[in-house]
Amino acid sequence: MRGPPLSRRAPPDIIIRPGRDEDAPAIRALIDASRAEFPGPAGPADRLGDLARPATHYAERRGALFIAAQGEDIIGLAASAPTATDGTIELTDLQVRRDLRGGGLALRLLNAVETAARGMQRLQLWCDTRADAAQRFFEKHGYLREGPIRVREDGSKALEFAYAKPLAGIQVISLDAAAAASADRRLGDILTLAANSDAQLPLFSGAEARRYWRGVSADVAGGRRVLLAGWVEGVLAGAVQLDINTPPYQDHRGEVQHLLILPAYRGGGLALALMAALETAARARGRRLLTLNAMAGGPAEALARATHWQEGGRIPGFTVTARGVPCDMLFFWKALG
Considering the entire predicted model, what is its pTM? Predict the structure, then answer.
């Protein structure tokens, strides 16, 4: 799958409509132009299935085919179909004409696929390892790397990364190193927005936030940290960490760190879901005692008390807010049964 790399605004008269079988020649031309961006062995032209009758092909697979049209010109497409895994749908193709990329058209097509997949649990896709801009695009919109690289079996021998994201309800996933690394852009946005909306947190620039998350990814890869991410209706909206880099003979405990929720998604149950999943992850790693720090009067204190953590002490003026105001720090603990 190629992606939308450039930075041009799409004209306003573009419509997104269902694909038709008579679109086949224009679809083929769009795919051939995309294939030419990455020279290599040519695979067969039927990467969208039966290109002689594309709409029929996707209807028979219970999938969807969307076309971006400007007048009589077809300038983009997106296609999806259910997989053999229950509740999972695959984005099989997403194309935008090169001179119109970067103007929001790819996102409109992706949104059309996600809307059509409403009711499914998960959306997955494969992305060419050379398509850096496409990878950034999907990561920006909550898709994370998963699993090993594959070789396309269509004759092109292209190498592809797998990406996926949950679609329905509140879902929490423990990220491995590859997923954590691919999440740094989106998690950086969450950290920046959460910090800028909360006077108690230090302010972060976008670059600082991404550097921070790269360090977290390194700790995940080294087995020193667990990173859980949470989605709400397809939006990656929060995360929490468990520090398990404990001294020798202290591997019975872990420290909860940096519960972050996008401001618009606070109070909807995501924080509770993240904390419940974190306790499950801690038990799976043999951790029987958890600790966390919370600024007095802040949302973390309220969450700890609501989820039956025990207060272990208070240090007056332990920390200073982003606005320079001294604040008491509370220390909580919880024994896991």
Answer: 0.87
